Amino acid sequence: MKPTLLLLFLFGLSFALAQTTAQLETQVLSLLNDARARGVACRGGGGGYSLPPLRFNATLAQVAKSHALNMGRYGFMSHYFRGVGPRVRVARAGYGYLRMSEIIFKGRNSDPARAVRWWLRSPVHCRAIMNPHYAEAGAGLSRVGHAWAVVLAQPR
């Protein structure tokens, strides 16, 4: 009886400790904002000074989530899905922007810190994160395939 109770306890504990997808998406934005606050310097130029935090935007989050789910479901890693890129997806969602970028990541797990570390080590992704014009962002995660997408933008 005791081994069964222990297994049930550990099984229940694992569920209690597991983070929801929404919590992980919030965490990735928090980590991006930490990098902006620290003034991360990007290899090859860019960054190097503290920036204000990115504000969460639900429309950008939905665009990012949809793309992450497609990457996970169909097993690809690209900014384009069926010939449609991020600028078109954001415009179709009704978000008016002056500038925007999408950063994506696909790994062995859904760890937000791992994705953010990878982006910050990549000069082009780091420059997008540290772009002083960007004020809003939304993140999406597909646990199937461990695919991340983040859309950053300067609203119109």
Automatic annotation (TrEMBL):
What SUPFAM superfamilies does this protein map onto?
PR-1-like
Per UniProt, which keywords does this protein have?
Signal
List each copy of the SCP domain by range. 29-149
Cross-referenced InterPro entries, in alphabetical order?
A: CAP_dom, CAP_sf
Signal sequence span per UniProt?
Answer: 1-18
The question of whether Signal is a record keyword is answered with: yes
Source superkingdom? Bacteria
Q: Per its record, how is this protein called by name?
A: CAP domain-containing protein
Which species? Meiothermus ruber
